[in-house]
Amino acid sequence: MLTRNIGIIGDGGTDIAIFKKISECILSDGDQNNVTLNYIELNRQNIHDAVDKYSRDADKIKDSCYLTGKEASALKNSVTRTIFGAFADFESELRLISNRDIILVTADSEHTFSHPDDYFKDWRVSISKILVGSIEEFYRAKVRENYTHEYLPVVIPFVVFPSTEILQGFPLL
Q1: Closest among 4, 81, 14, 87 to 38, alpha carbons compared
Q2: Using an 8 Å Cβ cutoff, are 101 and 6 in contact?
Q3: Rounded (10°) CA dihedral 124, 127, 128, 130
Q4: Across the strands, what pairs with 5?
Q5: What is the pTM of this model?
Q6: Which of 26, 31, 88, 102 lies 20 to 30 angstroms, CA to CA, from 8?
Q7: 85 versus 119: which is more confidently predicted?
Q8: How far apart are CA 161 and CA 135, in angstroms?
Q9: Three-class SS of residue 5?
Q10: Starting from the edge strand earliest in sequence, which strands make up the sheet with 2-9, in order?
Q11: 134 Cα distance to chain centroid
Q12: pLDDT in tens, 45-102
C-alpha cells in the first residue's frame, strides 16, 4: 500500500481539517483504498499574516503591478521563508522525504466581499501566482543545495477566498 505524507501549512484547526478532507477526496483511490494518507500539521508555519498584509496593501495599489510591486515581493519572500521552515519541520518529522510527499501551502483571506465581482479583482487572483513564485524559489534553492527531485516533496498552493467557512456547507466536509 502506498503511503503519502502530507504536510499542511494552515492557520487554524478548522482550516487544517478542511484541507485534510479536500486532499483525502483528491488523493484517495475511491473504494479500493490503496493509499494511506499520513497528515503532518506544520503548526509552526502559516502564511495568514503575510496574505492579510498583502490583501490590505494591494487594495490600495493604484500605480504598480500586483505581481511585481513591493507588496508582491514582500508576500513572496515571506511565503518562501515559510516553505523553507515547513520543509525543515517536515524533514525532521519524517527523516527522509520523497517526491511522493506533499506540502500544502494553504491560505484564506478571512474577509467577506461586498459584491460578487470582488472575487475577481486582479490582486486577489495574483495571490496564487505569487505563491507559485515562492514555490519555484524554494525548488531553485534546494537544487543549489544538491537536492534531487526524488528527495523533494510536491509543494502545492491552495488559496480559498473569502475563507474556508464557505466550504463547510459542502456535503463532503
Answers
A1: 4
A2: yes
A3: 150
A4: 38
A5: 0.85
A6: 31
A7: 85
A8: 20
A9: strand
A10: 35-41, 2-9, 102-108, 154-160
A11: 10
A12: 888 888 888 888 877 776 666 777 888 899 999 999 999 999 999 999 998 999 999 9
